[in-house]
Design goal:
This protein is an alpha/beta fold and 609 residues long. The protein is 36% helix and 20% strand.
Length: 609
């Protein structure tokens, strides 16, 4: 999301503000007040409640003053009977008119999609039964034609299907918020006095989930869980009792709880979250337990890395996170020992160190309660991230046996596949563009729809790069985009983005080779890269400074410009095999179109690699 406002904290640091509009058919001022006390990915939230009871009118009024230009997100929370007359009839035990109900839900979905496009995120709580107002229904509640709860399930499923194609719209399970509040969820008196259907407890749960979602959408979801071992991943001290005597699995409540905790971690890893170990132990003893214990759910291959020794845990964690090319603000430590937690939290304030329950029976539920892993989508590359880091560990082991970087790269059998941006690769390409910071020339951010629209112009080209080697497939890890300045016969590199997983392996040079070849075939005489500095893209500057391109702008702190004359090819590294599936970029008749002004893109740095 764009950061639209800035305030200064007491310590002098800038704190950005994201503006949120709440549209509802009830009084949502309590929710607005709670959200305004939360932050998301380093930004302060400022929520405003629109006049309630005007949902469809506001959703369909794109030019209304409520949709101000600096609005980042909208929360749209409705009651089912306000959206569907068919459902309201079911509450009165009238027979369900199914097609009417389905059309009313689809109309609501269309109205959500009509929210002006500058609002980048639309957060929509699902419909939940209001038992405090509707009373007990007994045997008829799940009746297929007159059961209110059965009808509500159909409505929510229909809504999920209707909005599934809109990446801006995200649904939330409001029934969970109501269940967490229990008997305190609703108060009929507050409804009649102030048109507030839910208690403060419900709104607190909603505010927590909505702010976590905004953090994830902005690229702030945590990506790494660092785990202690003894009495955290298993019961007992392995160095004292040996791996056979650890409490893990079996017919034992504590052992079963530790195994379920590992299963919860495994599920988190399938969402793309990495696992690592930081433990004070003898490495050989600990690794033997992981490899040999029959109830171990997590195996060595499930961990991206580890530090198992008697050194300071805070220092070990800092080194481990750096080794994985992540920031401390992307990591979480889970440790049963309060002293170790306090030491690490004090030494590494950017690391999230949650308080952890003493009772292992609560570990799995404590992990699932963490809201720091919320991400708007899970791609195939996310799911395969753990396997990619396993392959990386094996590559590093190989590197230790070869004498030089070039010799090591030659053993990898690097293969680069070039494709044009298409519907098939758009989602992953947009994710990479919006989350990568280090090897990123200009750090511009575009949602998938805008990225595709930008690429559709005749004088623009977006190529994506897939990389594999003999250890495995990295997937789509690079983006290179060009725009032609026809009068100057110059091809401008608008985006040069590469995942940190493959930085430093000559892939960057293979990308420049490809972009230069495309520009040359289109009739350009020079290739230009305009670097815009951010807090984290210095690796990109270092690459271009050593790329062989000529710097033509001096050492400005605002921007740096690098040129390559296309009277010669940019060399392809000998260690890279290139397969180009992108068609040649044809030259365009100069007389057929006016020149396009070069557009300045403001950098943004809210996401992490």
């Amino acid at each position: 999301m764009d950061k639209v406002d800035t305030v200064i904290r007491a310590d002098g640091a800038a704190l950005h503000t994201r503006n949120i509009l709440i549209v509802s058919d009830f009084n949502a001022q309590n929710l607005a007040s709670l959200l305004s006390n939360w932050s998301a990915n380093g930004a302060r939230l400022r929520a405003t409640a629109a006049p309630f009871g005007q949902v469809m009118q506001l959703l369909l009024a794109a030019h209304s003053a409520v949709w101000q230009a600096d609005l980042d997100a909208a929360v749209v929370w409705t009651s089912p009977q306000a959206i569907s007359k068919a459902y309201a009839g079911v509450l009165a035990y009238e027979p369900l008119v199914l097609e009417q109900m389905m059309e009313e839900v689809r109309a609501y979905a269309r109205a959500l999609a009509a929210i002006p496009p500058h609002v980048k995120s639309i957060l929509v709580p699902t419909w939940a039964p209001m038992h405090a107002f509707e009373g007990r229904r007994g045997l008829l509640d799940m009746h297929p034609t007159i059961g209110p709860s059965a009808t509500l399930m159909r409505m929510n499923l229909a809504l999920a299907e209707a909005v599934s194609g809109d990446p801006r719209i995200h649904l939330f399970d409001a029934a969970r918020w109501i269940a967490q509040a229990g008997t305190r969820a609703c108060d009929a008196r507050m409804w009649y006095l102030a048109k507030i259907p839910f208690s403060l407890d419900v709104f607190k749960s909603a505010a927590r989930d909505l702010s976590a979602a905004l953090t994830g959408i902005a690229g702030g979801a945590r990506k790494l869980v660092i785990l202690d071992l003894d009495d955290t991943l298993w019961g007992g001290v392995v160095g004292d009792v040996g791996w056979r005597a650890l409490r893990l699995g079996g017919h034992d409540a504590v052992g079963e709880a530790f195994r379920d905790f590992q299963l919860a971690l495994k599920a988190l890893a399938r969402r793309g979250v990495l696992l690592a170990i930081a433990s004070k132990n003898e490495e050989r003893t600990a690794l033997e337990a992981i490899a040999n214990h029959p109830e171990m759910v997590l195996k060595l291959d499930d961990f991206a890395g580890w530090r198992i020794d008697w050194n300071d845990k805070a220092r070990n964690i800092a080194e481990l996170v750096a080794e994985l090319n992540l920031g401390l603000d992307a990591a979480v430590l889970i440790d049963d020992h309060p002293v170790e937690r306090a030491r690490v939290a004090e030494a590494l304030p950017a690391l999230l160190v949650p308080q952890w329950p003493q009772n292992p029976l609560e570990f799995a539920s404590a992990l699932r309660a963490l809201d720091c892993f919320d991400a708007p989508a899970v791609s195939a590359e996310d799911r395969a991230r753990g396997a990619m880091y396993l392959s990386e560990r094996r590559r590093k082991q190989l590197q230790q046996t070869v004498p030089s970087l070039d010799a090591w790269l030659a053993t990898l059998e690097l293969r680069v596949q070039v494709e044009e941006l298409s519907a098939a690769n758009l989602e992953r390409a947009a994710q990479l563009l919006n989350k990568t910071n280090q090897m990123n020339l200009r750090t511009r951010r575009l949602p998938a729809s805008e990225m595709l629209a930008w690429a559709s112009a005749p004088d623009r080209r977006v190529l994506v790069f897939r990389v594999a080697d003999r250890f495995g497939d990295y997937g789509l890890v690079g983006i290179g985009s060009l725009s032609l300045d026809r009068p100057a016969a110059t091809a401008n590199i608008e985006d040069f983005v590469l995942s940190c997983r493959v930085m430093g392996r000559r892939i960057e040079e293979a990308m420049l080779h490809t972009l230069a070849a495309q520009a040359r075939r289109a009739g350009s005489s020079s290739l230009r890269a305009g670097y815009l500095p951010t807090a984290r893209n210095q690796p990109c500057l270092r690459f271009f400074c050593g790329s062989g391109m000529t710097e033509t702008s001096g050492n400005s702190t605002e921007s740096r410009v690098f040129d390559w004359s296309l009277d010669r090819d940019y060399p392809l590294p000998g260690c890279v095999s290139l397969a180009n599936d992108a068609a040649d970029w044809p030259a365009i008749d100069q007389a057929a179109r006016p020149p396009r002004a070069h557009r300045h893109i403001r950098p943004a740095t809210q996401a992490v690699d």
